[in-house]
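step: validate -> pass
step: tokenize input -> pass
step: predict -> running
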Amino acid sequence: MKTKSRLTITLSQDLLKKVDALIDGHTIRNRSHAIESLVKQGLSTQVSTAVILAGGKHVNGQIPALKKINNRPLLSMTLEHLKTYGVSHIIMCAGINEDDIKAEFGNGSKFGINITYSPEKEQLGTAGALKKTEKYIDDEAFLVINDTTLTNLNLEDLFEFHRQEDTIATICVKPRMSEPKYGQAFLHGNKIVKFLDSSENQGISIVNIGLYILKKEIFSLIKKDTYLNLETDIFPKLTKSKELSAFVFQGSWFDTSFNDSFEQAVKEYSK
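step: predict -> pass
step: emit ->
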């Protein structure tokens, strides 16, 4: 069965020379392959930058990002996951943990990525820390992930969803119908239009897994050098303008800041 269709296109000689220059006989075999590769790149929804929020307080003397599963720091597993999907520029908001994380991961070169550290002299919350990364971000859209989030989420699906939604922020959520302690959100289609407390009998119970895609427009909503959190101070503002989308997924996710979830992750990844 044919999986491709034949097309006839017209290109200028100058452009055709540039196409031919891509042909190396191995990764790009011929003109058709070169043009196909260029089209894929042009239509790509790739996100290449991620901000990791890793400045959390120590728990039982441990730095959350450096807790180990199979003798591997959690952060190394997150970096590997991001790299798999082409996310190679990492901006680390490590706060009080910067020296320890830098000692373990350096500039990221030995992992095939580039790590930039964003200094934070005092804790400013998730939004306040994010604001300090603004000067390091050139991309239109970028990922933000908590250091205690461990997931097998297909990021390509997330990138495409965010592109189609075209909102300032997309947050990844999982249904938690039997666990109202996580709070509730009122959804209209894919948009979160209101956050509810656990006493209100409407909406659906979901949990924010601590992984987002944001547009650079988000920075205009965050006051500089001010303690603010994305979850309580910024996202509720976006619901009013219907600029907050919810990507609901059913894959695995562990919040390793909780002992029971961490132990489940140990069992899962030990397989």
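step: describe -> The mean pLDDT is 84.
step: cleanup -> pass
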